[in-house]
Design brief:
The protein is mainly alpha-helical. It folds into three domains: 96 residues, EF-hand (Recoverin, domain 1, Orthogonal Bundle), CATH 1.10.238; 94 residues, Recoverin, domain 1, CATH 1.10.238; 85 residues, no CATH class. The chain is 50% helix and 10% strand. The protein contains 16 helices and eleven strands. The strands form four sheets. Strands 1-3-2 form a three-stranded antiparallel β-sheet.
Length: 360
């Protein structure tokens, strides 16, 4: 889950300062290796062993909290490790931001409240099961009404759509739902509204679309070694450099000591997995969006976040491409009159720059 899952758990945040980017990368690789079924989940015992390996102490009570927050509805009792690692990354980056950071202040305001927790419990009581609750269809209706493509609707628009559903939500529950998902006093954030409904939906609710499971058909990508640019292809030829050395005269009958020449075995570099890279890039893009309150960040904030994800997900995006995309995404905030980065524009520019540079 999006916002509350990122910052509500104190226990997970306590472990964040002890983890650097390299250890988080190793932790993610270990979890993907342990995920033999490629279904994106691990048993809590497996997760506990990996955390112990990286010296992250988690008590049974804390592990229970993690199970509740990152459980997978498809596999009861299993933990979505990708979401857990992303939570650690976001929490770590938030903890390292200065106290007066605009982004940090926005996140603190957006923390899950008791009202939100109570709302999810109330929605769980009233939302129907089976085909009467089709959240995929409900989401499509909302986005069809979003003419500006900014994931925001007015409250009357959302009220109209809710009233046309056969869910039977009481008026006070509907008002509370709109209040917890509002973007401003008169507007509603579609992602936040859907997040609340997804967290409250019954387990046997209906889906009109074929859902794609996280981690399905996933094949772990080995760490890629830096490669020479395409125009510097190596044909396997090695020049032999002969160094003449003065040798002492050899006595009669004495044999030269023949030193065995050591040859380096050719290193077979793993084949680049384009789909895996695209999936990891999308994970970074989604994390940047969820870390922001309004879809914008300052240059330093987004530089800090993207550099961390670039390292942990082993994307190997060069610094010059990162800086180029940042400069192309700068806009002037009409309220603060400061230059900020539009995150969606930055994600698009960065992906296109990588595709063109690497001919993906």
């Amino acid at each position: 889950n999006a916002r509350s899952d990122r910052f509500e758990s104190r226990h997970a945040e306590e472990a964040v300062p002890h983890l650097n980017d390299r250890r988080l990368q190793g932790m993610l690789v270990s979890m993907r290796t342990a995920d033999r079924d490629r279904d994106g989940v691990l048993h809590p015992k497996e997760l506990q062993e990996i955390l112990n390996k990286y010296h992250v102490t988690v008590t049974p009570g804390q592990m229970l909290t993690l199970k509740e927050k990152f459980t997978d509805r498809r596999y009861p009792g299993m933990v979505k490790y990708e979401s857990f690692v992303q939570f650690l990354l976001l929490s770590k980056n938030m903890a390292s931001l200065p106290k007066d950071s605009r982004l940090k202040a926005a996140q603190e305001v957006g923390m899950a409240s008791r009202e939100e927790t109570k709302l999810i419990a109330e929605l769980g009581r009233f939302l129907p099961t089976g085909k009467q609750l089709d959240l995929d269809k409900f989401r499509r209706i909302l986005y069809e009404m979003d003419r500006n493509r900014n994931e925001i609707l007015s409250k009357p628009q959302v009220e109209y759509v809710l009233e046309r559903q056969t869910w039977g939500l009481p008026g006070e529950v509907q008002d509370q739902l709109l209040r917890c998902s509002e973007k401003s006093p008169n507007t509603v954030s579609i992602p936040r509204l859907m997040d609340l409904l997804e967290r409250a939906r019954p387990k046997d609710s209906y889906s009109s679309t074929q859902s794609v499971a996280l981690g399905e058909n996933y094949k772990p990508r080995p760490v890629r070694e830096p490669q020479a640019p395409p125009h510097q292809e190596r044909d396997g030829y090695r020049e032999m450099i002969v160094i003449e050395e003065e040798q002492e005269p050899v006595e009669e009958g004495q044999m030269y000591a023949q030193e065995e020449e050591e040859y380096e075995e050719p290193v077979m570099l793993p084949k680049f997995d384009r789909n895996r890279w695209m999936n990891d890039f999308q994970s970074m893009a989604n994390a940047l969006l969820t870390a922001s309150e309004d879809g914008y960040m300052t240059h330093d904030e987004i530089r800090h976040f993207s550099s961390t994800f670039n390292l942990v997900y082993n994307l190997e995006i060069p610094e010059e491409l990162m800086e180029l995309s940042l400069s192309q995404s700068l806009i002037l905030d009409p309220h603060t009159h400061q230059q900020v980065i539009h995150i969606q524009t930055f994600n698009y520019n960065l992906q296109q720059a990588c595709i063109e540079a690497w001919q993906l």
